[in-house]
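Write out the bound-state structure for RFL.
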Amino acid sequence: MRTQVAIVGAGPSGMLLSHLLEREGVESVVLEARSEDYVASRVRAGVLESSSVDLLRQVGLGDRLDGEGLHHSGILLHWPGERHRIDFVDLVGRGVWVYGQTEVQKDLVAARRAAGQRVEYEVSETSIHDVHTDRPFVSFVDAGGVPRRLEADVVVGCDGSHGPCRTAITDRGAWERTYPFAWLGVLADVAPSTGELIYAWHPDGFALHSMRSESVSRFYLQVEPDEDLAAWSDNRIWESLAARLGDEPGGWRLSTGAIREKSILPMRSHVAAPLRQGRLFLAGDAGHVVPPTGAKGLNLAIADVALLAPALSAMLRDGDSSLADTYSERALRRVWRCTQFSWWMTMMLHRHGDDFDAELQISQLRWVTTSRAGAQGLAENYAGLPLEL
Ligand code: RFL
Ligand code: PHB
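---
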């Protein structure tokens, strides 16, 4: 098989890249290790920045988002006895959209299918070769067990944080932070008890009340990194969420419902640089991972491919590699901004250290919620910075 761009990974970065490339007249083939259903049903991100939404709309992927997405103009920050609203629209003139990654993925798959995009699902033994020549290729074994080879002008690793592309870049630096806690994620069939996301600091640990629709809520609880999921009965989950989110008789109440899914998610920051070696480029989680507290991972994946698609098109169509040559540096500027913001939100909201750390956290929360300058910094980063910094 031969194509212009071989894309490894059919998650949001890979599928959106193939969509953007086609609009630029560049052909691609996508290789994916999992099945189409598996990729479509992974419960992950829930929040889109306004620049992500603008881009999806511009490229014809905004119809369902406009109909079913929930526009939020702010978030709530909570700690025992206090709840404050950060109004993004008032502070920085733009809000965010609650629209699940599962929905973004559905829209991408539908659009690519309609365009006749070639996606090979359930491939194995994916390996990247000859990235220092102008004929790189990917070898893999297809779903039927047949060894194959995909030749291309360029290979893009959109294969997430455990894929083979990142390790194929041999001349790279890696920056990493592992946090001493994890999240227990819960999806429940219950109407959200809040109109906006609640990020809560509590002596027992962080909690987040998010949502997917008017009838489905998404919650997270800070737990130990080696937490045993079996130790969390539905009852214990609801009691912990109620306590940490500030449920009070006569005050705000948390509605409970049937828990559909629960899982433990590790929390880490990781940046690999550069995002390119020869004719291999990285985008999305393949190049960087952030803890989910700032809701940045999916947005960074979208921002990367928004820079990469025009760069590859100029290189392959017009023979101009100036944008491709600066892709890594331009993308990393935004990656480090989001890495810092995600780290900052994580360290402000999770219980760690001793009582001194706890007092600093409460003081910082007070400043962020009572000073316009403090609130504006959070709002500007959360609602999203321009695609190119
Ligand atoms: P993905 O989605 O991981 O897709 C990579 C794809 O590559 C495939 N793959 C391979 N294919 C072929 N050959 C191989 N050898 C392969 N190895 C792997 C994988 O099967 C997979 O299909 O990466 P991508 O496309 O870069 O997208 C990144 C986002 O998925 C990720 O950043 C977000 O989900 C992060 N994230 C959030 N981001 C936000 O912007 N807002 C949020 O609110 C938010 N919440 C979250 C999150 C991530 C979470 N988890 C589970 C990590 C909440 C959670 C709980
Ligand atoms: C989610 O709804 O999954 C979600 C929302 C906000 C975050 C992280 C995850 O910061």
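---
Residues 322-349 form the longest helix (28 residues).
The mean pLDDT is 97.
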